[in-house]
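Per reviewer request, we include the raw input and output of the structure prediction for the construct analysed in the revised manuscript.
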Amino acid sequence: MACMNKRLSIPDEDAMVALGRRLAELCPMGVIFLEGDLGMGKTTLCRGILQGFGHQGAVKSPTYTLVEPYELADRQVYHFDLYRLSDPEELEYLGIRDYFDHQSLCLVEWPERGRGILPVPDLIVHLTLEGLGRQAEFEARSEIGQKVADTL
């Protein structure tokens, strides 16, 4: 199932955070890949998702640690940043498969660097430049992802 079915304009950082909060409502569990060049707002979107689940603290990209776990009231959220990953096989040493357990939400920045090891996502969010803002394009890869994209 691959379906480019929704595009949204995101004029500023506040709108990106608001989109993240909306995604938290619509997709409490699963796997979301976040694609886009440096500076497109992937981590900002993650911040919005985490705030949507009640996280109050800072959200930084786990560029050096590869994964940042968040234990929230009733769920686990794992924020991955694979930008510095040199070989997808390195993910096996992290015990990557243990994170994707259907009881958590996994947010993956730079998923193309984990190709062949990462599971199929429920939703892919492609972020691109649009004027002074951004455009988010949603690609559903599961029934969960399709429901999210249809509802946005």
